[in-house]
Amino acid sequence: MAKSFAVIGDPIDHSLSPNIHSAAFREMDLDSSYIAYRIPKGELDAGIAGLKKIKIDGFNITIPHKIEMMKYLDKADESCSLIGAVNTVSNEKGILMGYNTDMDGFLEPFKKRELDVADSKVLLLGAGGAARAIVAGFAKEKAKSITVANRTLDNADNLSGFARSIGLDAHAAKLGDADVRNYDIIVNATSVGLGNEQSVISLDGITGETIIYDIVYMPMNTDFVKKAKEKNAVVIYGYEMLLGQAVRAFEIWHGMKAPYNAMKKALLGGF
Asked: What is 190-252 written as a DSSP string?
């Protein structure tokens, strides 16, 4: 039985997901297809009805639908409910089950490199889309504390409130106010870097022990990453999170271990 999958969002034409999943299907000899499907904001209702009609087996959700999609689910897993957003759906005979692979995708590179998150002090830059999933990940892995630094303090306050509600010691700060020397892990979850802009903070004072993680994956070497490399810090790239999410989605849909290396090759070929 041929299976079909998609990624929905707007804009969608730059998505690397079709390449990554198609490579996995080829590697595992699966009769499956994966397409990018543009659903503009405000048209999710009709879009989901269309996907159900063609009996799509599963789909990924990206901006701007990750939160709104929650109301179309018949069931949601724990991370979905906790984060309040969904990025992966499986369709079992018309029953839509939602997952959020952002958290596991974010944590995957730490596990792959055997980097310990427990008891670390974290600085999180940005309080937008993926930030809640990242906070949930740090709580799950028992980080010692997290400082959420954001341009608008209100959003940082909200997110640090969420962090405290799930058992993480958390503080809010303005973007320029955090001293990088006080942290073991610094994560850029702002979209700064997408257009090759300057990093949102200076990394003067970090050491070779500091873990620097940029969730922006295009370009691979953002200004933030370049500055981290100059200081010989441990660097985790945005593509590693993207790959971690894709691997998890593959495993949800197919119930088998994903071909990590084939997917990585397809992803890096897209740069």
From this structure: SSTTTT-PPPSS--TT--TT-EEEE---SSSS-HHHHHHHHTT-EEE-HHHHHHHHHHHHHHH
